[in-house]
Amino acid sequence: MTIDAATHEITLAIPAWIAVCRLDDLAPERGSAALVGGEQVALFRTHSDDVYAVQQLDPFSGAFVMSRGIVGTRGDAPTVASPMYKQVFDLRTGECLDAVGKEPQSLRSWPAEVRDGVVHVARPQSDEELST
Amino acid sequence: MLQAPDTKQLVVVGGGMVARRLIDALRSRDESGQWAVTLLCEEPRAPYDRVALTSYFTGRHPEELALGGQEIWDDPLVTLKRGVKADSIDREGRTVTTNGGAVLPYDALVLATGSYAAVPPVPGKDLRGAFVYRTIDDVADLRAYVEKRREELDRPVRGAVVGGGLLGLEAAGALQALEVESTVVEFAPRLMPLQVDEGGGEGLKRLIEGLGVSVRTSTATSKIVGDRGTVSRMEFADGPALDVDVVIFAVGVRPRDELARESGLEVGERGGVIVDDACATADPAIWAIGEVANIGGRCLGLVAPGYTMAEIVADRLLGGEGTFPGADLSTKLKLLGVDVASFGDAFAQEPGNLEVVISDPVGGVYKKLVMSDDARTLRGGILVGDASAYAALRPMVGRELGGDPAAYLLPEGASAAPMGELPEDATVCSCNNVTAGAIRCSVTEGDCTDLAGVKACTLAGTSCGSCLPLVKKIVTTELEKSGIEVSKALCEHFDLSRAQLFDVVRIQELATFSDIIATHGRGRGCDICKPVIGSILASLGTGHILEGERATLQDTNDHVMANLQKDGSYSVVPRIPGGEITPEGLIVIGEVAKDFGLYTKITGGQRIDLFGARIDQLPKIWTRLVDAGFESGHAYGKSLRTVKSCVGSTWCRYGVQDSVGLAIALELRYRGLRSPHKIKLGVSGCARECAEARGKDVGIIATDNGWNLYVGGNGGFTPKHAQLLAEDLDTETLVQAIDRFLMFYVRTADRLQRTAAWVDDYEGGLDAIRAVVLDDSLGIAADLDAAMVTHVDGYEDEWAAALADPEKLRRFGSFVNAPDHADDSLAYVAERGQARPATPDERTSGVLIAGTTLEVRR
Ligand code: SRM
Ligand SMILES: Cc1cc2nc3c(=O)[nH]c(=O)nc-3n(C[C@H](O)[C@H](O)[C@H](O)COP(=O)(O)OP(=O)(O)OC[C@H]3O[C@@H](n4cnc5c(N)ncnc54)[C@H](O)[C@@H]3O)c2cc1C
Ligand code: SF4
Ligand code: FES
User: Ligand 2 centre and the CA of B16: distance in Å?
Assistant: First the structure.
């Protein structure tokens, strides 16, 4: 499948789930940036091959870098730490688990799943978000 | 501050360490300003650290002997008179007359005039080249004389020290530091007769001779023979004469009690102003403290009892009732690098006492404990060669040891021994008279949460430092008790510290994070433990940092081998070893910067940083750089950064060695070495130090004879000067010493602990590290050497290797589903002819010169 097709698809058909890439395109226990509906999304593949999608924008630094953080766990929660100032977020919900002394800010998260080896992200919720 | 009308005048005569302590104590307690103090110092300087006098020879300036807290002299109630001597006292009129003729009235007078260095009445004692060893002026004169003689003679300078006690051995150390061939002459049958017994004296002699100092015991000096007014030979009551160019008398001290004598105060038979246990003389307005005071029938030649006396007088002046509790004459010294300690009833003088002795003449170790007749209570002891047990044992004098006494004497025994809990009133820091109870209290009630806080609050460990290991232990125990986390656990995934993990990984030869966390941790790791393990694996030479699972451990900088900037772009720093670069190299860097539109800046580390590269541009930029012969500069890694150099002897008219050549060799040797924190080196071509080597983890300064090696320096938030590890090394020995120092640091430091903090934290400090590096005290030198060889042989340029591997290059795509679509969140504005990240305002107002569509030539 061609990857560019996936990006184009959304602007046309707006399906409930958007195919973004193959699971194999994602390195285990690391993140990758993806463009979903013109928006920057950070995709993560964990050790157990679960896939999560959160916003690429790091709310603490204002830079689009979340996919480059270190993936790990805090208790049961799969996490990512911002590569900029090391705040830690729960990948499932985007909740900020460690704000490193700052006012906590969470990440937006999208449902994501793997079907037949292809990573799908649920389409953005509101029309407003689609207009970007 | 206004002086209260009824302020009383205190005059203190003698500006030594004890006088200083009195003023500190008084000013910190006399809140209402009852007393105004005038201090008369005969020496031309404020009180300084006489105990550390010998460090004047190891590169310290006189200013570095200054005592902490100099702001005391700005206190309006304190008047410091330097270079002013008290000539006489009028007890009737309560005044002191100075050598300048000033008459100072007093309400209270404290004599703190210390001692003279004694000079035996041998003929020739006044020749040029004969010295005593007491003041900064003495040691400065000594050094100047030795240096002058060295220029005049075309052979090494020869010297002798008369007196083999504590002071004599210090003086011999000073001669060694001045590269004088030295002999210690002692009248008694053993060295340090006052502190150690015969067995200890024997061990000490062997150790000191091992360091190249000759020792003659049971020898009386009969005459010093001069040649044209300068010292040239020593003659003895028996035995052959000795040719010498310089002599130091270190035969003891005589209390400077002349002021008291002349004003009719009582002095002891062997000198010293007689005082009671409140340090008061028979004249209710006059006190005496420190070495000049004759208390309990004797004068005490150590600073700790002097400090106690100072505290008592401060207390009394404010209406308190303090009395002198008796002196602890325990001493621990590091003489010429040899540990010696004696404490309590070291000579087993009390009837019925038992002795437990361990003697290893070959290893130069002699240890003895004196126990009560039932072998339970510690009475005292002597440690020669290895005094590591001193801090733990000294406070236990007079108490039950609780265990087999011999266990305390085995090597490394101090820490492993079955230590009972120290009683509250046991003195832990004798310099500052701090008890175990006071240390605990500073933690439990004083909110101190670490060693530094406890030091600041109780002063424990702030003078000679010998009690620090014990203070640290008590603090840690107390913090643990109150539930404060002092565990060395790395994070929630590992209970081990970095150093422990390093050993485990090395010894069990674990090579993957999954194996390591499965066997020694839990969960899947985090941003704390993953980079640590990534670094450990890299230090152990397990291959490329992005190979397989290791890629998941790296922080973004290591993951893309560039430095993340505030806007999400990266910077590129090619290695420029030693700061030396050809014009062609500069042109290549310039062209790359121009073609990719990168902001260019010279760094503080003598190289060039190219800023504003998008992640997807990094491989393209590096292809150009690698093709032109550049390699990764590891600006992103916790690893060797740069070896800074000055231009050195090749060009500089003062340079004495090729500092650039050495810097390049070292940078190429240690490049890529992953470590607990970044490592920086510097090499200066002469003592002018233009490379600021002493601000580096490892600093090398050229000398006429080779290289001086300094370690443990850094800039940054808490700048630290590197300290001297070894002198005048040839290049081969130097490199070996650095190899070992760095490898030992890599293996044993904490996460994100730079060398300075590591040296401070390491048990035994710099001396212990020096022993590991130079004398192989742990028997691991061969192992460290081999590890460094493995590193050097295994080095490959990380960028060249990544460019050759398509799998590794995959991570540089901008978007997984649109690898060629540039990140358009980046925006730049021109400033001074180059690009810089746009501010949020500029982004919204749309005045951008360039987004990510910047023209890129390949
Ligand atoms: C680029 C540079 C500033 C410059 O434009 O000159 C720089 C840039 C940074 N320094 Fe530095 N330091 C630079 C020279 C220095 C120097 C000067 C030197 O090396 O002679 C020092 C003081 C010397 C020292 O390290 O002891 C220095 C002391 C620090 C410190 C404080 C370290 C400490 O022990 O206290 C930090 C913070 C840290 O590492 O935790 C730091 C951290 C940083 C970081 C990594 C901050 C960050 O996390 O982003 C910056 C990386 C920017 C980048 O992308 O490269 N930088 N930094 C210099 C790069 C030198 C090089 O060629 O590699
Ligand atoms: C090289 C060396 C190493 C030492 N190592 C140790 C050690 O490891 N541990 C330890 O406990 N002790 C050590 N000591 C001893 C320690 O330094 C002294 O016990 C301590 O300094 C005594 O302090 P003080 O203030 O009583 O006298 P001093 O330090 O002698 O100070 C007296 C000052 O008064 C001045 N003075 C004298 N008469 C007059 C006057 N009439 N008017 C004005 N000023 C006057 C003198 O010039 C002098 O500066 C060492 C001493 C030396 C020299
Ligand atoms: S001093 Fe601060 S701002 Fe400047 S380069 Fe170093 S870390 Fe960055
Ligand atoms: S015993 Fe000297 S500083 Fe504590």
Answer: 5
